[in-house]
Records
---
Amino acid sequence: MATQTLIDHLAVAPVAAGRLLIGGDWVDGQDAPLPVLSPINGRQLTTLASASAADVDRAVATARAAFDDGRWSRQPPAARKAVLHRLADLIQTHALELAVLGVRDNGTEISMALRAEPGSAAGTFRYYAEALDKVYGEIAPTAPDVLGLIHREPVGVVAAIVPWNFPLMIGAWKLAPALAMGNSVVLKPAETASLSLLRLAELALEAGLPPGVLNVVTGPGHVTGQALGLSMDADVLVFTGSGATGRRLLDYSARSNLKRCYLELGGKSPNIVFADAPDLAAAAKAAATAIFRNAGQVCVAGSRLLVDRAVQDDFLAALAQATQKMTPGNPLDLSTQIGAVNSEPQLDRNLGFIADAQAEGGRLVLGGHRALVETGGWYLEPTIIADVAPHHRLFQHEVFGPVLSVTPFETEAEAIGLANATDYGLAAGVWTGNLSRAHRMVRAIRAGVVHVNTYGGADGTVPLGGVRQSGNGHDKSLHALDKYTDLKTAWIQI
Ligand code: ADP
């Protein structure tokens, strides 16, 4: 059957049960269930269990018990590897089902979700399955009468709080390395994107992950997430989400057991186009994709276009032309390039940014309005606003929507100054045909990743993480393993 026909069939299939996963059992939450609304049409899809603080404590205690008895943490590496590979196989077998479930829940266009969600999650589980028996301890270069051994141990219980934009991809970035190193996990998905992760947890059990090693608690951030942050027995907290929540998590850690917190907090990433870019037409197309795919709900989105004034008018014309081909549409249609905005409050927030930008002197080049109102879903036209100055709200703050700000520059030094003129430091793009300039820009821009003559699309071999108020710690690559391990020294007198 053609893929689109399969998707249409799956679109009416029942979704995962609204339960919590604690100790291998699917159980109700103590608090009242939450309705799950689909961004595609605003209608209720199902309900989600709501974990109380007591539910969360029980999940953490279960994870701790599973860690302590060694059912996973002390399995030989080859056994853990086999389970994680089986999970990757199951994700691939169920890729379409997982993607459709996720799209109905969070509104990402299916063409992107298929690649970025099950596709990427399966790859991530395989990457860490293969990595787990290639990480060694060390022998220190001590004096000859002692032996200094440096063991690398799992941390114990990992709490993972993840967002709604790419639940499987980002969930796998946390789960795969945490489980690979032998930890137990309590996962808290976002309220508006829990379904595909609940299904992933079912598949993990089917793959042979022992009960209690992965627990999933759904519910509101300020209840369920807060209880996890305040847990006295979670050793490490890994998070992707907003800066406001990140600050709260540090506070929870300080008020509880000083758990280590790794925060990935989004950005306001500059995409910088010099007049000497090798192919300005390609750069314009990429600039549109960099901000408008997944309706701009991408942490590394190129949301601030900085463009050489010498080519600004031509570039904006090419950008508008590329953007006009990207109209929002039904997220379950394979040809749709821009899906829905995740929730109604998020849509209102986006529209607020657009209104403020114009009130502050920004010039609306394209878009600016709600789209597809008749569907009952939450859609926004891809929006371009020019003449945005560094003191404007749109220049400084993350929208997390399909809204691009455009600011001209005249010199390389000015471009660097503008690139670094926010509190964030997650990603950047530089378009130039001058090799020396490209390297100078990579060094000068304060960001976790700088793309050159492309934007986004980095694979699992390279780390992703921010600097400044974009956070700390890294997802992906072998570097991510540091978050999920502790070093222990053995100092042995010979
Ligand atoms: P966004 O603005 O992208 O929704 P959030 O930071 O609000 O980002 O959400 C990311 C994750 O953090 C979600 O799983 C959400 O439930 C959780 N969360 C939100 N508020 C809190 C909180 N006060 N304590 C702990 N977790 C929270």
---
Amino acid sequence: MKRRQFIHKLGTGAAVTAAMVVPQVAVAKKKFRWKMVTAWPRNFPGLGTSANRLAQRITDMSGGRIQVKVYGAKELVPAFEAFDAVSRGTAQMGHAGPYYWKGKGEVFQFFSAVPFGLTAQEVNAWLYHGGGMDLWRELYARFDLIPTAAGNTGAQMAGWFRKEINSLEDLKGLKMRIPGLGGEVLKRAGGTPVNIPGGELFTALQSGAIDATEWVGPYNDLAFGLYKAAKNYYYPGWHEPGSVIECFINRSAFEALPKDLQHIVLGACQAANLDMISELTARNQQALETLVNEHGVKVRPLPDDVLKKLKTLSSEVVEEIAAADPFARKVYASFNRFRKQVSSWSGIAEQAFMRARAL
Ligand code: CA
């Protein structure tokens, strides 16, 4: 009986396919040439390379029906103009971090990283199964963009400091490259946050134009040579516990694709999301050992009282942003509800296990 039903379905399908064969072939043969602009230097380890792999994956998965050419920062547009370039259709997709667009609205930062917020695993849970992605799409739709996660850095490092941080006093007057909400928190702690593109960090730190910088973690930071400009490498990355790397797609370009290619583009981004966290998790400790053993880097924890203060200030900052704009309030409500729920679960799952493993 089941076999007969199957054959019957197959027969119906074949009839439908025969009727539609001409337009389907025409669509299947159509080739799309896309440009991907990025906020990273070309081939930059972990981020630039991830953009390259995503582009290649889309090309491979589509059998060459979409050819994606990657442009590093400044090759087509400067790092911080990638969003506008894709929004107006100069490029079809972009690879960056949502908090780079805070000038368009503070709420963007919720989709990158919230200080003392969600880990990589938790933020993926919020985006894919907790309502986060719908809110993100609602926001980017205003700019004719479709956003999606295309990577995650995992827990970052607190950063590189020319001087030691032993108390809250040491944050006063500190000029530090730290983007997003973390920067606002640093400002309230008495520091001076600045945001400059990754490619310019090393020079700024070495020349003394800034006293400290955060970037990502050992694997990415080693590649930048930041250890040559400062030796104190602090953890944990309280400001970026699991930062989302985004891919945003021009809506018209996306809608011009046949359905299967739309699925390929979004599926490739989801694969890239898994790929980046896996790569960084695999490489970070190796890179950290190189930094310590070959370059004399001092790995230091931020003092607990400093972290507690930063946590209090973080809540203030995030709540103020939420109070200032109805959409931000909606995002914050979703994020906060999810954080409470998932923190309880993580407490008896990962956190309890990590504790047990360290016994
Ligand atoms: Ca960072």
